[in-house]
Design a protein that fits this description.
Mean pLDDT: 88
Number of helices: 3
Shape: globular
Distance between the termini: 51 Å
Largest sheet: 4 strands, antiparallel
Radius of gyration: 16 Å
Strand content: 15-25%
Number of strands: 4
Strand order of the largest sheet: 1-2-3-4
Structural class: alpha+beta
Oligomer: single chain
Length: 115
């Protein structure tokens, strides 16, 4: 499988969209300022609520952890299809926060349907 080539302007837009979806469930989520993006990938810096700092590579083939600044961090060569799946695997507090938000939305939907 060949990597998808995106323009230099497109990767940051794609990265920001992915980060916006998870920001409320992590402590910090930014495009990594110290690593240079290419037309095939971009790097993200994510700090979980467990205070674990990850550098995540985002490419056409998915998301993967490339560096971890804490000893407790989970790293692997695994590629995840979505940033949600990656965070669900590495952060219990992300999983809890996401689950709580989903539960609240479902309850709200149920209330709207009942009344």
């Amino acid at each position: 499988m060949t990597e998808q080539v995106l323009g230099k302007e497109t990767w940051p837009l794609e990265a920001e969209a992915a980060l916006n979806d998870v920001r409320k469930h992590v402590k910090e989520a930014i495009v990594e300022p110290d690593l240079r993006s290419t037309n095939q990938k971009i790097y993200l810096k994510i700090t979980t609520h467990e205070d674990e700092v990850y550098t995540v590579e985002m490419s056409a083939s998915g998301f993967s952890v490339v560096e971890c600044l804490n000893k407790r961090c989970i790293t692997s060569e695994r590629k995840y299809e979505t940033l949600y799946a990656l965070l669900d695997n590495i952060s219990q507090k992300y999983r809890e926060s996401f689950g709580e938000e989903l539960t609240l939305k479902l309850r709200d939907l149920e209330r709207k349907q009942q009344g």
